[in-house]
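[Solved] Which block belongs to which protein?

Original post:
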Amino acid sequence: RTAAEAHLVIVQRAVLAAPLPPELERAIMEAVEGMRQRAGAGLSLALRSSAVGEDALGVTFAGQYRSELHVPPEEACEVWKEIVASKYAVTAMSYRFQHGIPDDAAPMCVGVLAMVPAAAGGVAYSRDPVAASRGHEQVLLNAVPGLPQAVVDGAVTPDVFIFSRTNPPQPIRKRLAGPEGAPPSLTDAQAAQLAQVALALEEYYAEPQDVEW
């Protein structure tokens, strides 16, 4: 381990050991309690990293900051610190250094969300980057049953749905990853709706989008 890496470990440990400011801890717990009241028993949380600039044009921090799923409500504050500490992971710090992003230009926020029992999840590309490099314009959807983490991590082979970039999008082809006869992760109608949403997001942001859904 290099001296720089050792210093980063010290920084992360300092973040984890430091108590939260009382007003912040109170605000988190009050918000979580409100979510518990709305959701009822069995509330499970997702704590997601969200740093300023991580999706800026020309950079990507995908996978470098930490996110945690299925967090019990009573652990929200502790996991909140773990997400913030991930800003000082070796990979994240090295990436920001290589791109000339100073520490104070990338403040970290943590999204605390109530999880739902996801039927399917994945990633949608409003403009398939590989196809675009070959002169083809199309929407690409990757989908798996349950949460999208397996798609993001590349841990499984997803179902693939390809649509035209017309309004409304028209199906071009699909490739299902499951065994023959197994139901797809999305119906054709659901896939078409997702393709429409991807195109709407591209129109709103005025540039191609890749969206975890």
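(Second protein starts here: sequence line, then its structure tokens.)
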Amino acid sequence: LSIIRSNRVEWLLSGLAQRLSDEPGSSPFAPELVVVPSPAMARWVNLELARRHGVAANLEYPLPASFVWQLSRDLLDDLPEQDPLSLDLLTWRVFGALPELGGEAAFASLCHYLSDDRQGLKRFQLANRIADVFDRYQLYRPELIRRWEAGAGDDWQALLWRRLSRGIKGRHRVAVIDRPLQILGGSGDAPVL
């Protein structure tokens, strides 16, 4: 595992291009993994590598969430194949939970927004937006998720997160990430991501 950091994407690409040309992989049939923040970035990296080398083949571009989950699955034997709070599944869990929130004061603004949604379109769009935010929190704000899991926060986001993660405690990205870090030589403290 090589982690290359920079605040300039051009420098990162140059380093990757150089590394790929200097160090052939252990097997020509094993793909190189390049973790990228978005599908658009994956496409750009692939096009730039092809432009520099004439071809860009046998490269995989997992997003951070799927990479972390797969790494965790490879190291731990008790995880499901798919993250139960991955973006797609989380969208549908939020979609299903929204109608149940009507009687709680913390969710008044959400219920008011959805009050004229007869076809469920606004509900789906809102569920998708909330799921996207929660997905980003899992990656960029794990300490917030940990606090919510511990019972802190009484705003609608904290309450909704606890409702969504009920029944899967310890089996979502933030709860799982500490275990592989310990296996890989971490200190056992909560990671700073």
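Accepted answer:
You had them paired correctly. Confirming on the second one: The beta strands are 32-33, 59-60.
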